[in-house]
Amino acid sequence: MTNRQIVVKELPQGTLEQSHFELQDARTPVPAEGEVLLRTILMSIDAANRSWMQGATYRDAVKAGDVMATYSICEVMASNTPHIAVGDIVAAESVWADYVTRPARKVQKLPKIDVLSHLISVYGIAGKTAFHGLISVGKPIAGETVVVSAAAGSVGGYVGQIAKALGCHVVGIAGGPEKCKWVVDHLGFDACVDYRAGGLFKSLRAACPNGIDVYFDNVGGSILEATLALMNEKGRIACCGAISQYDSANPSGPRNLPGALVVKRLRMEGFIVMDFANEDAKAIRALQTWVSSGQIKVTEDIVDGLENAPAALIGLLAGDNKGKRMVRVGTDPKT
Amino acid sequence: MTNRQIVVKELPQGTLEQSHFELQDARTPVPAEGEVLLRTILMSIDAANRSWMQGATYRDAVKAGDVMATYSICEVMASNTPHIAVGDIVAAESVWADYVTRPARKVQKLPKIDVLSHLISVYGIAGKTAFHGLISVGKPIAGETVVVSAAAGSVGGYVGQIAKALGCHVVGIAGGPEKCKWVVDHLGFDACVDYRAGGLFKSLRAACPNGIDVYFDNVGGSILEATLALMNEKGRIACCGAISQYDSANPSGPRNLPGALVVKRLRMEGFIVMDFANEDAKAIRALQTWVSSGQIKVTEDIVDGLENAPAALIGLLAGDNKGKRMVRVGTDPKT
Q1: How do residues A293-303 score in pLDDT, each as one tens digit?
Q2: How much is the pLDDT for A41?
Q3: What are the chain A neighbours of B272 within 8 Å (beta carbons)?
Q4: Nearest beta carbon to residue B252 from set A240, A255, A275
Q5: Which residues of chain A neighbour B260 with C-beta distances below 8 Å?
Q6: In the structure, what pLDDT confidence band is assigned to residue B93 with cuts at 50, 70 and 90?
Q7: Are residues A147 and A262 in the same domain?
Q8: Is A333 part of any domain?
Q9: How many Cβ atoms sit within 10 Å of the Cβ of residue B249?
């Protein structure tokens, strides 16, 4: 079995480019005692992948020479542990490769589900991140105004749809008229503001006549600065990511921080999806309820082929995806 | 009765200066129906006074031509309302003047207390701000590391002493070796870092070997940026003010926001003392307990004379006070 893998040849200083990666052929690894051999089916492509290249975060940094890190759904091909069987479908912190070995205790068996990709999108990292960040950090209630940036992205689209299901006035921020139209027409947001059109503050103010109560922030930077200026007293900002800063060699903080927090008594709080693992069952049940009722549409953006993973991530950082982006590396054994 | 008052002649663009104020003689006002005539005894001098000149905050902006706004302790000289008597001591949102009229429903009768100035310092705005911000927003517990900026200032000194009473490791940040020594020797902090000495990040890291769990921020700017870099996961930042930004025409936000919040899952929350008015009785009881036990020392910095109020505020913004600064305008009727 050939094992293709994609290595980070050089760490980016500014914009991530194709030249920072290299596709290599390697030996298929052999699982040691307590390990399993996994065949990659789907890899999640996330803005956070880029932040791993900036240094240690909630996980170790990705360094030059490393096979690029990812979160994958895989089929078990060989197992040296009694409680995981060949043919099981599992999730794992993994790498951009056809095959990988992992300690069995670090992989997670997945439930049987018709559409495997849903375990990365709505019932996976995207849907759970949206649910936990909005519900447990943002805490919106019917009638409040909820704004979410990267609204056409994987997490943002679910945030807005959940907020609509809760009875909120929901405004997205996205790049370009086509995406904004899709966010309103397809996802059902009340409005979506195009940050590339200029005049963000004024457009956002017009779309939020009662101010902003909850802002779900995926981007940081000047968009965060504009929303802070429109927050209502006692508003909440759920900090999920800062995509505007990841490709920047000179990050800049919103100039109205911390002033806006004091004046309007705002709460701004960062979170990552793993913090709420003990509430995942609740999240999945709620998401299933809203998918069944048609209040949540599952949106996926699947790129085929391991070799296209660098372009998929670079494109995501430039904002070319709609819905949860992932790369299909191998076939679903059911299909 | 001559009524001296100090008017804001011109709004500052950068550093606040004496020339922005003018002492004027005015008529002593006559209270209308439902109003009281107040004689100013003590005026609280706070960094927030300067922020009022930047625009509307939690209160209306101070504009050019206005008599400068303040929070005062006053004696009632005439009353057109049955429930406030001549001779009562009251607190009021007021102005820099010898005499002022106010609607009776907007003044607050004060308890009998031996030392009137304590109603501005430890049992007043300074002590209550420290208590509510630390206890209700920062939520420290014994063994945690608490850092507070403007540690020699009115609020900062109480924050650190309360945190020590709770069993925390307490580190102050202040300007100059003399103040830092006073914070450690007189107030009992475990350490105090001089931000003017350079190398703030390294000094702070050395003083906080276990990282920072709670940061009580009075200053914003680069000091906030340095503390964010040292926060532990799930740390809390109580945002009380941003004194480093008030005198600046070009405010700059910490470059690690919102990134640090996401990576370390921090909570950053603004508050003002009035938000917790329903818990003031609890705050006063706790502060009295710690004053009685000697765990809190009351520190006051009283400037005599209404005419010295501009210099008192300008000096406070430059950091020349130790303890709660106030201006004594008139005599305490008891003395």
Answers
A1: 999 999 999 99
A2: 97
A3: 262, 265
A4: A255
A5: 270
A6: very high
A7: yes
A8: no
A9: 8
Distances (CA, A) of B315 to B4, B59, B67, B125, B320: 22, 23, 20, 19, 5
Within 8 A of B257 by CB-CB distance, chain A residues are: 220, 253-254, 257
Domain membership of residue A210 as a residue range:
125-292
| Domain CATH number, residue A80 | 3.90.180.10
Size of interface A-B (CB pairs under 8 A): 114
Q: Any chain B CB within 8 A of the CB of A263?
A: yes
| A 40-69 residues inside an 8 A Cβ radius of B | 51, 57-58
Q: What is the pLDDT of residue B309?
A: 98
The question of ipTM being above 0.90 is answered as no
Which has the closest alpha carbon to A314: A64, A6, A19? A19
Judgement on whether residues B213 and B227 belong to the same structural domain of the protein: yes
The CA distance from B158 to B171, in Å, is: 13
**Domains of chain B: total:** 2
pLDDT > 80? residue A335: no
**DSSP-assigned letter for residue B135:** I
In a domain, B223, yes or no: yes
Could you tell me if B101 and B138 lie in one domain? no
CB atoms B253 and A257 under 8 Å: yes
**Contact status of A265 with chain B (Cβ, < 8 Å):** yes
- Write down the pLDDT at residue B327: 98
B234-262: pLDDT as tens digits: 999 999 998 877 767 677 789 999 999 99
